[in-house]
């Protein structure tokens, strides 16, 4: 499971942090749609729908709503790798059943590594080219995924 | 392993045939780069290079050469699902390590189902949209994959 960590700084964005909650609880919060809706989208935006079929080729889809009520259309992707409590890989370049999609944007790798009583949490967003990486950076990857991680940690603790 | 067979006739192309060679030999011919070079490209074209890292996220790449010596640049994709002797799924929408690519074209599912002493062989090419399917049809999917299958069967028998 190591080589998805081969990071290309021109193409990838990375958020890494040690958090004080066990991998098992973060995993639960990532893999149950009702849980995920509670933390996935930085407030005041919300995740109003979530579909999870937790296996390679299974759907991963979220629908987000702005505080003004604007709903972003879902863009269903699929899981690529599922290693319970340790690693989750998904992409929007393929839909359910691995069908290619016309406008790929990213593959995400999320690693949950035990670290003392907590977790070394690493989220990697991989893009096809520098333009994709830049666009994601300008969309606020670090701030957005960082805020979502704060929300994730708080929520996951409530599951413990 | 059944649901990759959910075929959408608007988006997918399918070649299905019962052939008189065992799944294990077809599998060998598909998964060893030296074997694959022998049959993969309809003659008089040739496959002159082949890279195979047979695991989800591992590279699958071929380089083809025309009878006039023109070499098509390789377009490395990756495997998505590997079920020994039964099923192979790969795509050019993601490169090695599942990195998205700018111009996805297809995901291929190849099924090797025992049928008497032979194999029911099914190759499915899935596209993002009708345009992709049409383009592939016009490129000669059925003829090309059919000829390659003739070559595959002949070569696989020599492995028996």
UniProtKB/TrEMBL annotation, chains A, B:
Any single Pfam family the record assigns to this protein: AHSA1
Ranges of residues in domain Activator of Hsp90 ATPase homologue 1/2-like C-terminal: 20-155
InterPro entries with a match to the protein in the record: ASHA1/2-like_C, START-like_dom_sf
Transmembrane portions of the chain: none
Highest taxon in the source lineage: Bacteria
Family classification: Belongs to the AHA1 family.
Identification of the protein by name: Activator of Hsp90 ATPase homologue 1/2-like C-terminal domain-containing protein
